[in-house]
Amino acid sequence: MKQDLSAPVITIDGPSGAGKGSITQLVAKKLGYHLLDSGALYRLTALAATKSGIALDNEEKVGELALSLDVKFVPGEYGEPVNVLLNGEDVTAQIRTETCGNNASKVAPLPKVRAALLQRQRDFQVFPGLVADGRDMGTVVFPGALVKVYMTASAEERAERRYKQLKAKGEDVKIATLLSEIQERDARDSGRAEAPLKPAEDALVLDTTGLGIEEVLVQVLTLVEKTNGTVI
Ligand code: DC
After folding, report:
1. Strand, coil or helix: what is 182?
2. 121 CB within 6 A, ligand 1
3. 136 CB under 6 A from ligand 1?
4. What are the distances in angstroms from CA 154 to CA 112, 136, 188, 209?
């Protein structure tokens, strides 16, 4: 589908592990909006490069790959993209690994990659509306968004949340390793020249350290209600 500039957009940006993904899904479900997990596109680009043996710092080649990615998001019961297909192959689990996330943050600074993914992301802006999760949704991809939220939490808390998630999946991980990976990823995402991770000037900054998901959801929905007059 092609971008419809009159469809409302809610952007949810912030560092890895701040809980954006869960909040984005809940807000999209509540409003019946479409969902864009923009990180998945960077993860898919990194995965496609690894599968084709292309070095992650080869901007020309990785940029070409990003432009021609054959991606399909298969919506779940509430319209969430639960399954992700790359060239017809279900890569949902492969793109969710820590390695793929770290590789995604290595291809993400490349200007050709960001340019290649820009319109693909904007084409998610269709009726009845969109909730977009990422790093530069409010600053670069949808600067005219109706509601902008920047979710953050201390690196220690984000590492702990991730640790619990991975442990629940039966993965053997160390919290100290996760913390240093999160700190490295934050530094790469915030320090890059192109579309660095930072709150948009008109974003509501929500520090979720010590907050439960329900409390965060209420704050986001209250902001949406105040902004567009929708009673939720
Ligand atoms: O949100 P995530 O963990 O799936 O994102 C993976 C990486 O992709 C992240 O480290 C930085 C990059 N990314 C980005 O640069 N811009 C976005 N809008 C989303 C993700």
Report:
1. helix
2. no
3. yes
4. 31, 20, 17, 6
> In the structure encoding, which two tokens stand for residue 69, read together?
């990615």
Whole-model pTM: value is 0.92
The finding on whether 14 has its CB within 6 A of some atom of ligand 1 is: no
Query: Which regions of the chain are under pLDDT 70?
Result: 76-81, 229-232
**Ligand 1, atom nearest to 43 Cα:** 6
Using an 8 Å Cβ cutoff, are 164 and 219 in contact?
no
CB atoms inside a 10 Å sphere around CB 83 = 14
Q: Which of 152, 182, 151 is nearest to 166 (CA)?
A: 182
| pLDDT score recorded for residue 198 | 93
pLDDT digits (tens, 9 = 90+) for 72-83: 988 766 555 678
144, 185, 105: which is closest to 3 by C-alpha?
Answer: 144
Of residues 57, 6, 16, the one with CA closest to residue 228: 6
Please, how many CA atoms are within 13 Å of residue 65, restricted to the half-sphere of its CB?
27
Output the CA angle 150-153-156, nearest 5 degrees: 155
Residue nearest atom 16 of ligand 1, based on CA coordinates:
135
Tell whether ligand 1 has an atom less than 6 A from the beta carbon of residue 38. Answer: yes
